Each structure stands twice: as structure tokens, then as C-alpha cells.
Amino acid sequence: MLECRGKGCLVLVCLAIILRSNEHYGKVLAMGIVHRVRDCPRDEKEWQKASDRLNCTSGDSSTMNKYHCLPADNLTTLLEFCYTRTRTQVVEGQCMVFIERKHIVNNYDCSMFKEGCPNIWYFMDQMYRFPACFEIDPLLHCYKAEATCQPTTWNVSVLSDSSQSTFVNKTSTNLTTADRNNREIDPLPILLPLIGILGIAVIIAILAWKNKWRRKRFFGRKETGRPDGNDEELRAFEMRPIEISQPERDDEESRLLGLEVNEISQPERDDEESRLLGLEVNEDIDRLGIDYLIHNLPSDHRTFPMIAEKLKIPQEILYWSLKNREKFVRSMKVGNIRVFNGRAMVIGCARAGKTTLVKKIKGDKDLTTTSTSGIEIHSHTFKLNSDESTIIVSTDEEKEKGCLCLAPGMLEILEENTQETSFGVNVNVVPDQSNVISPREENHIVDKASSLPSSIESTLNSNNDEVVDDTDPAVNESDQLINNLTAAAYVSAGTDRSNATLEHNIDLNDCVPSVNRDNLKMLTLLDFAGHSAYYACHHIFFSPRAFFILVVDMTKDLSTVATEACRKEGLIYSNWTYADYIKYWLGSIHTYSSKVAPVILAFSHSEDNGADPEKALQYFRQICKCLPQNLLDHLDKRRIFSFQKQSEKNVEDFKECLAATVKSQSHWGERVPISWTKHEAVLKKLKESNNVVSFSDLLRYVSETNDRKRNKEEDLLNALIFFNDTGVILFRSEIKDIIILNVQWFVDAFKHIIFDEIHMEVMEDMRDFAEFQELNEHGLLSSKVLIVLWQNSNFYQHKNSLVNHMKHLDMLAELSKELWYVPCMNKQKYPWEILNNCNVSSRLCFLFEFLPFVIYHRLVVTCINKLGMTPWKISERMCIYHKVTVLSYKDHRVLIAICDNKERPHRNFPYSIEIQINVTKPREIDTRLTSKLKEDIFERLSVLTQGILSSEFYSYVGYRCRLETFGKNVESHIITEEEMSASEYDCLKCSHPHIVHVGSIRRFWKKDEAQTHLTVGSRTSSSHPFAATEEMTNLNRVSRLMLGPCTEQLRDLLRLYIPPASFPAVIQRKRSQLKRLTEPQRKLILPNSGVYSGNYDDMDISLLYILLRNVCGIQAHNKGWGNTPDSADISVSANIERLRLARNRCSHTTEGMSNVDFNQVWSEIRAAVVDLDKVLGIGNKYQEAVDFILNDTMDPVKDKHFRDQLLEQIKDINDIRKKFERIEGRTKKMMAN
């Protein structure tokens, strides 16, 4: 039976070979029959001939069923077919390919072609104009025009008739015209017998080999039980969590805790949607590789860890702008290395024993400690041991190494290239601890020789500045620098300029990358102060790259107040229990780091129970009962340890857990550009004698080295952003010219400002100093106090650099050149009576799951620094308090407060930041101003939280149920917007139920439709305050243009990219990228039943913009989607963006548009419409509509009245003229007589 089945398979295979042997075999698809061809037609005449041969539609009158000849998407063959759908217009810089498995066409970015890439727009059936889009190397799966596509020559020995050996060169070459003309010759009579015989022989050999392999695999597995453990990736995949010595608990305990490793899950999402998105992303990454980063990324950020893992890159790169991602990809193509560098954060309340624990795992004998102030950074203090099972202390030399190191294999190649090309490469090598590299270490070499570019010299130093690496994809780009950061730098004269400038005797030419001979895999520890005063700067260091060690004093009852952390009464922390602090720390991790960041629990002071694991587990259960369910994802009962100060018990198990945890993180082993190793070496050299350096100086010194890279500035900028994200430096592009090299130094500078009393040595000398009291009690920092606080260090000479960084990190607000406000230092209680004589608005509430105290402080600071608000003063006293801030804005006042709502109705979101507007009686609140303020605050919160990966902070917005002054002792509760759908709301949350008139609550914050959509239909006198004006007419004329021709043009653009018939399938596939649709928009295009069946006529500009941006695959303009494009940018996305901005300008304007503004806006819209007309290929259709509306009437009824009056006047004039002529005639007759 088996033999018969084998014979049957052989017959079927032979038949398949015969059927496929013809070069023009076809397959029936939705678009017709697809044929494989040797080459595509190269001119219009040949193209037409091929079209006639396949009976495709000819002529320009029809746009469907046109002849197409495209490469397959895997670049292994060429395909011709009649495309039954509407032909597509292709943008410049793109070739087209055909995806057989999906039966669709797709674009291919040809910007890396040496020549031949289309530089104009063209239709897909005109690709014969660009032969480079056909010329592929099927063996290398690439276009021949790509610099990286090097043809491979195979020497194949073939026996001739004379029995002599000859060599046939199979290098891919272009077929001649004669070859193409003769491609119809049928090779079947010659090839079929030979192919049949060879095919049968090959198949028999394969079947025999597979049978043998199955037997070997089966018996091998039976004998060994598991694969060889030397495979690093397999070992990482099969890694198990560290088990501690604890008795197993029963099933009820497991159910209660719910913390088994395999139960820790990602945030819930729709399974089918997640599966489809994962398949789509995986397909795109398989097809594009690292180029996936330069396309539109999924809007669902929950896919980012999977993408980073798949591409083996830092996850932070995915949050960069498109422009920065493009630079990163270009650098990656030059060469990359793997990074093994972990960070652990030691957190907990004051006096919990954090510093003692760090000393214990370092092996220190002296465990005497002092209270930590600020943050102590222990860079590269630990490394993984040789078998990576635990951590050990690094040597002093190893601690000095950077996080980017070259591996032994890389070093040998560099040395070889050095000898062959005379490159001056000096490598700083730490002496080997042993002269032998074990086979296990060989498996961990950071990079492989095969992953290097063909010319590695481009990444290192060269003595010949004129040599250019042809393999660098960026080599043909413009030499213009991407950002002239130095021009916009603000440095005051005589202060930071001299200090931020490098010493001229520093020789950076000797800076070389570190070399990792021992395959060092490092771990850095950050020891955080537990006093509440220092919480203001903790969020800067929390990142998805870290894991956490939460130290808890086991002797403390979780329900007692933690007096060690906050000694001041009346503050938000004052009455916090130990359980509250644990919840705060875990909430901060959940908010600023990751929703699943691993946390190791370390229970200190366990002398009373002898560090008994059973007691630790009991205490762990008590902690779990105090926490909300989503915070339990960070914990695991296998990651709990208890310690005694004078005992080493559990220390080794703890260190093994640290090693296992750091290896399990997604960024462990990620790849970054190799050129960044040189930049890190330069930064290390500068840090030896500088804490601060200017970007301009750093760029100048980098440019003066003999590095051959042409795009030095963009490469340096990308590297600095990465080093900032990983905590090596502090760098913000918006601060322009200043780089903080010494992060510990910056933390210490801020520590001197936000001092805790027990850490302030100068306290006794300054107690009577009035300005010092202003800082200590009100958070007002004067320049005079700053001099005293920084007098014993070098902070003050870098005053502007440090203060600018603190401003941009929203750590302090600038009130004047000599006065700053530090919100976290304010300890004043809010007296609500100050607003007793005020009219107030309702309270707009942003709801939070965890205490957003840092967000509150940053919002206050950004309102002062960015929105131009100033603290309101009463009797020359600023109204700034611990939990409330009152700011002046125009002729109104804005109250910003943080509230702790522990009532039962707010259990899910117990914290809120609330906004209330007030004015002095009898003045009334301008609702136009309040609605605009709501938009501004939304925008500020978006900016403040855009770098936070774990959650959306203000997903829930609501209002207080009563219209009362903030702080007044009146019971009120928060009603979410979802609950206020009707005109009245029955509030049952209050102890005395009452009716809430929704309109009276929301009217302060809801934009008035009458203000947004103004009309000019009024017949009132021009003296009336609401009479139409020329400015209002200008606004309405632009609105008419946006609602008419511009909207219709965007609909046509959507039809070009996605025909309406294809829209349901496309939108289902891309629905994961449309998270921010409004409910009406979602119901329109994703109805609950059926599918969207319209032709886009029911879509407005807002929805069209979302679809064009997220679904159509349109390349973002140089400033990125959502931003104002450069004036010279005429790309499709830039023009779509201009129409969106013009529409928003009309919607947000209530007072008309001046003639100057009207002319500017109209000119911008018209230019965008003209460019989009060209894209659509429809002549001047919408341009003519724009010109018509410019001169058309805005009131047909009134104009008809004026025309009738004018005609009546003309008639009267004619009658008068006729009467005059008659009188004149009579007069002449009388004169004649």
C-alpha cells in the first residue's frame, strides 16, 4: 500500500512538472491568467503587442483590463496579465510588484536604486518607461539597480559532446531584444524527457532522506529527551523562572493569587483582531525586513514589543518620527551589533533597606549606610557570569566599558581590514581574565562576520577622507544637514557658552569603540531615594527597558502610616500607609514603564522569622489583597525573597533571579548601528572632563575625526536620542544645543533644589533666610537661593544648561529670569474662600487609575511655560498650593487641582485632575474661552503622556455633578461623558439623589455649534453686533470651499487608492489601525451588521483624512502626519495635511477672517488643490472650482435683489434718456421754426 501511494505521488509530481515546464504557464485568478515571462516589454510598441496577445484592453479611453508586466513580490520572476481593476497611478520613487498569494499589486520603494528609479508620477500600465523596475536578479531576490544587489557567478561544469569540461557562467544578464522576440519558442520537446528523468531521481532521493531523517529524529528524541543546550535561542525560548525554596501550596492558593507565570497575560484584546494584525505585521516584516520601519507603523502600540522582537531592535525606535526611523534604517544597513545591557531600579519607602540590599549583592562586608538622597546610579556594577546563571561584580575596568561593545569576531575582522586597507583603527581591549574563549562563549559573540557590510571601513576611522563607501545606502543623498541644531541654541553670554565648549586640547581622534573580549553582559542598578520629596524626578528614569526591585520592610504593618517617607502634615502623602506606598510604586511602574514590567519583591528586616520563605509568602498574600487586579501582573510568587542584614541566606537565589529576569527582557540582545560604538566612545572621553557639552561642539569634533561617514549630523543625532532613551545621557532636541553627559551630576543638581530636610547640610545656616523659606514652603526658587544651594559644586556655572533642561522636563516653571516655581516643593494648604466672590464654571475632570501627582505638577508647569499663564495674586501673594494652583489667563482664572476620590463610586478611577474657570462677580465666563482651554489642556496632556508606553491617561473624562466653587464643603461626584447622553441625569452617587441638568454642566466646555458654523443669511442692519461683516464673509467663503470641492477632491483621492468595491475588505484588514474613530464614523464604515456599501459621498473631511493617513499607505511628509508640512513640500501627504489644517482653522475661528489671512489661506488651499489635481490626473477640475467660488456670490437672494434693483435703475436711466432725446428733438424743431 505504501509503495502504491509512493508511485502515485511520483506520477502526480511528474504531471505537475510537465504542466509547469512551459515558461508561459498560467493560473486563473480574479484578474485573469497570469503568465511567467523571461522579460517584460521595453517600449510602447512591444507593450501594445503583448497586450494584443493577451486580449487586454487598449487605448486611453479605458482604464480597466489593461496589460501589466510586473516582478513577483519576492523578486524571483516576472509576471504578465490583464488587470481587470482600474489601473493605479504610481507616485515617484516607487516601482510596482505583484503579490501572487493575495492577487494584488503593491509598491516597492526604489529610492536605493543607483539609477533608473521613476522620478515622475506614472500609471501602472506605463512601466515600460522605467526598465530598471523590471531588471531583477532572481537568484539574489533583488533589483539589479540596487547598490546592495551584487550578481552572483556560478561556475557549473557541463560535459560537451567532445567529453571535455567547459564552464558555463550563469551571471544574471539582461536579455537582448532578439531573445525577447523569440521567447514564444516552445522548449517542451527537448526539456520534457530530461526534466522528467531528473525530477523522478530527485524526488526519490528526497523521500529516502526524509524517511531516514524522521527515524533519526524520533529515536534521537527518545534517547536524549531534549535538544542540545548550546543553542542560545532555544535556551532562551525554554528558559524557566527561578524557583525558590518554598513548599508547594494547594490549588486554592494558586487560584487566590492568580500569579502563576503562565497566567500573566498581556492586556485583553479581541483574539481574531489580534491574530489578523499579527499575521499582517509578520507578513510585512518578512517582506520588507528592516525597511518595515520606514513605512506607516500600526496605530496599536501593543504590537510594538512583537515588532521589536522580530526585528531585534530597541523598542524605543518605534516611537521615533518617520524621519528619524529612516535615518536609523540607513545606519543599520551599514552594519549593526547586538547589545546586552540591562537596568534594574531599586525602589521602596525610606529606611526600607534598599542601599543595604545593594551592598549585600555586591559582597560588601561593611553594611553601614546613610539615607539615600535623590538617585544613586551604579553603572555596570554587575555582569552575568560565564554560564549566565547568576550575576557577579564587575571589575573596575569592566565598569568603565560602554553599553555598546565589539565582539571578538568583529575585532578580528576589523584588524584584518586594518591591515589590508591601512585604516588607523585602535581598539581599547580589557585584558582577558582567561586566555581561552569557551565554546559556550563563542555562541554569544555579539555579531557575526557574515552580518558585516562588504566594506566595514565606512563605520570606523579612515586616513583617507575622500574615500566613499558605495555600499552605504545614504551615499547618494544630499549632503545637506538634517537639522541645524546649533543655530537655535540659547546660551547666555559668559555663562554656559564657555563651560559647554570643549577644551581644545582634548584629542578625540584617539576615541575608539570598546571591545568585548569576555562577552560582557552588564547590569546597571539605580538606587532611588524613598523620601517623597524626591518623587518628582523618578519618572525620568522609569522606562520599558527596566525591571524593578521593590524593597519592603517586613516588620511593618501594611495598614500603618509610613511616617519615615513624609514627615510634613497636610500633604497628599502625609497619611499614606505602607500599602499606599506599595500601590504608588507599582502604579508608577505600570504607568511610566510597562504594564507587564517584572517586579522582584525583596522583604528586608526578616530577622524575627529567620528569612523563612513561608513567612515571606504570607506577607506577599497580604500585599496582593491591597492591590487592584491589573497591578498583580507585575508580581510573581517565584520572585519574592526575604533577607536578614547579617546573613547571606537567599542572596544567591536572589542574584540568580536577577540574571534570569534581565535575560527574559525583549531588548536583551537587540541590534543597533555599529557606528554608534564610536559615538559612545567619544561621549565617554568627553565625560572624563565635562558634565555638559554643546551639540555644535560635539558635531564639530566628530566631523574633524577621520571618520568617512557623510551624514555625520543625522547619525550623531540618532545615536544621541538612543543614548538618552537608554539613560546614558540626557538629551532633548528641543533644548537644541546642550547635552548632559553626566546623568548623576544632573540628578544631584536637582536634588539640591528639592532637598529633604534631613539631607540639607546648610539648613541651620539658612533657617531665617526668608527667600529660602519661600522655596521650602511655597516652591518659589530665587536666583539668590540657587547660588547658595549650588555654591559648593560646579552646578552654578552651568546654570542655564541645567535650568533649561529642568524646564523642558517640566520639573520647574520660569516665572521670570530670576525666579522659578518648583511645584513638588509646595506645602501650602488651599483656602477655598479666596474664590468666594467669583462666578465659576463646572469642573472638568480627567480620571486616573493611579495617583497622577507628577502629571499634575507637569501640567501646571507646562501651562506656565507653554500656554502663557501666570500665577494669580491676591494681596501680592501667589495663589499656588500643594494640591491646587490658580493661574491667570487673559481676563479669566484657571484652577488646576488634583483630587483623591476614595468614595465607593470612584473605586475604578480614584484620582482626578480637575479644571475650573472663574471670574470675579458680576462678570460672566466667556464659554468660547473655556472651550478653547479644554482643547489646549487636552493637547498638553497628550504631549505630557506621549512618551508613556503603558496606558492612555485621560481615556475617561467627566464633570462634577454640582456647580460649586472648588474646595467648598459640598458633596459632589464625577459623572463621565458616557453617562451624560440625555438632557438630564439622575445622580444617585450622592447621599441625597438629585437631578443634573446636563446642558448647564457641559455648556462651559462644549463648543457652540452656532460659533463654529457661522452663516451670512442675516438681514439685520450692519450696526447690529451680530451683523455680517467682510471678515465673516471671508470665513464663510473658505468654509464653503472646504465643504464642497476640497471634500470631493479627497473622496476622489480615496477612490484612487481604494476603489469602493474593495473598501470593505481593506477596512476589515486595517481596522486595527483605526482606534481613534468617533462612534458615528465607526458605525458608518464598520457597521455592526453588513459592510459599508457607499461610494464615499457620505464621508466628511475628518474621516477622509483618517483613512488616507492610516489605510492607503501614503508616505508621510517630512514633518510627519499631524504636523504642519514645510512650505516647499508638495507631496500628497503634505497637501492632504494642508486641507486638514485649513478646515480646522475654519472650525476654530469665531470672529471671522481678515483679508490678509484670507488671501494667505486661499492661496495655500489653491496650491494644494492644483497639486492633487495632478495626482488624480483629471486636468484642472477642482482648480476651476476653487477659482469659481472665489468670485461667486455668497448670498444668491440678496444678489438677485441687487441685480433687480440695478436692472430697474438701468431701465429708469434709459427712460430718462429717451425723454431727454424727445425733449431735445422738440427743442431743435422749435429752434428751426
TrEMBL record:
InterPro entries: HEPN_DZIP3 (IPR041249), P-loop_NTPase (IPR027417), WH-like_DNA-bd_sf (IPR036388). The chain crosses the membrane at residues 190-209. It comes from the Eukaryota. It holds the Pfam family HEPN_DZIP3. SUPFAM superfamilies: P-loop containing nucleoside triphosphate hydrolases (SSF52540). Residues 1073-1201 form the DZIP3-like HEPN domain. Keywords: Membrane, Transmembrane, Transmembrane helix. This is Uncharacterized protein LOC111112614 isoform X3. It comes from Crassostrea virginica (Eastern oyster). The gene is LOC111112614.
